[in-house]
Amino acid sequence: MGTKRILMTLGMAIAGVLLVIIAFTTWYTVDESEQAMVVTFGKAGAPVTDSGLHFKLPWPIQSAEILSKETFSLQFGFKQDKGGELVSYDKETKMITGDEYIVLADLNVQWKIIEPQKYLFNATNPEEILHDATSASIRSIIGSSQIDAALTDGKAEIEAQTRELLTALIDKYDIGIGIQGVQLQDVELPNAEVRAAFTAVTDARETKESKKNEAQKYVNQKMSEAKGEVEAIKSVAVGQKTARIEQAIGDVALFKDLHAEYATNKEITRQRLILETLEQVLPKTKIYIMNDQGETVKYLPLQQLENQTPPVTEPKTEGGSN
What we know:
Helix content: 40-55%
Largest sheet: 4 strands, antiparallel
Distance between the termini: 195 Å
Mean pLDDT: 81
Number of helices: 9
Structural class: alpha+beta
Low-confidence stretches: 318-322
Order of helices and strands: HEEEEEEEEHEEHHHHEHHH
Number of strands: 11
């Protein structure tokens, strides 16, 4: 009688446990930001993405794995502690550039679960694989980059190449993860002394470029001024050319008139031309006209009369002198 009661009690306890298991393992809820995977005796079914209450067979026949549909962030080389402070891991971020400089590079990788079945069953720890793949990718890209590109204007290209390489590795590993983005946080030299030296070099390079720009600006200004002077000289030359041509045309017309006059009165015209030429050549010389016998010909000295100043006459007063 005692044994029967014990068996009945044990049976009721087992039934109660089974009822509890059935009550708590035959349903599950999926939030809007989640997705579920129902596993039947270790075999995964289709993903469940509809939010709300869902039912399944009790454990251990079926189990539900709830996974997030949101984007995760992998922090490589740094972490944020509970107080909000950033903690760096220099050993993890220290790497060598293509021109053999040591830099510290940390980055942030955005990723999400795109294939829940592969995420759950193709790898024991997908996030660790992602971390290792991130390390391999950034080290490979930094190792083929120059220090100037890594520290200045080449960061965008390094990010793009790192994302491309990391995506290729994750696709090869086939762990159900999709890379959404890669963002470099900091790329810097390992100590303050080296950073100061590199900053000095960078400043010198910027000064060089500034001086080159100023020199080019000066060259452009002088070229513009020279072109202006050339145009001015050409304009003056064209004006002088036109004046010379007009003068030549006038001289030709004058010569034609003289030639016509000469044809009418040769002797008189010849003598007049000789006298005019002498006046032009010897403007201040007195001219004496000689005859064939070598005697001076008397003539009215008009030039002397012209140069004489006429006498000043005093005005007469009425009534005569006193």
